Amino acid sequence: xxxxxxxxxxxxxxxxxxxVTGAVALFAPDLAPRVVGSLYGAxxxxxxxxxxxxxxxxxxxxxxxxxxxxxxxxxYANRPIIAMLIVLQLCRVFCRVRDxxxxxxxxxxxxxANAAAIAVLVAESAVLTxxxx
Length: 133
Hints:
- Helix 4 packs antiparallel against helix 6 (111-130).
- The protein is globular.
- It has six helices and no strands.
- It is mostly helical.
- 21% of the residues are buried.
């Protein structure tokens, strides 16, 4: 598999993930905690504050998904988008490492699930870094 194919595949996967989860969070915020639970093993409380924050995060995810679609169509012409997606994923790694206890205590995410999520984020970042060459 060539580098450009691998980078493009990761970009399409990121686009699909962000568009689907963003749409759920924005348009069906009451369903979002179940989606988060199935994807991450997290238990999310419900309530007005969480519903509003979930919708706002969904809007951001949709925008990120749209940018990933643009980058996936022409990766080497969209290096700045790829660079920002790498920054996003690495920030997520930082938060998962820094807040591992919060994830465990507040959301019920066990260390193994957190480590798996970190590994995926790092792998995505590594592949996307190839797209900057």
